[in-house]
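Quick one:
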Amino acid sequence: MKAPICRHACRALAEGALESGPQALFFRFHLWYCWYCWPYKRQLRALGDAAREVWGPRRDTRAVEDRVLAQLMRPPS
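Output:
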């Protein structure tokens, strides 16, 4: 079961509230120090990038999907 702070971070990511400002800083800090979310930080960050691009001015979802999949297939650095 996720901690309440994890649920809050995931909800904020889904709502697109983590683009800038204190929420974005909180989310980055949370990804690095949370025991539950740390193994999934690359996937969560890629999902956040995809959500921002889809909800932003760009509407080419296929290109976003391709880039996110390529990002997830890369070995971690």
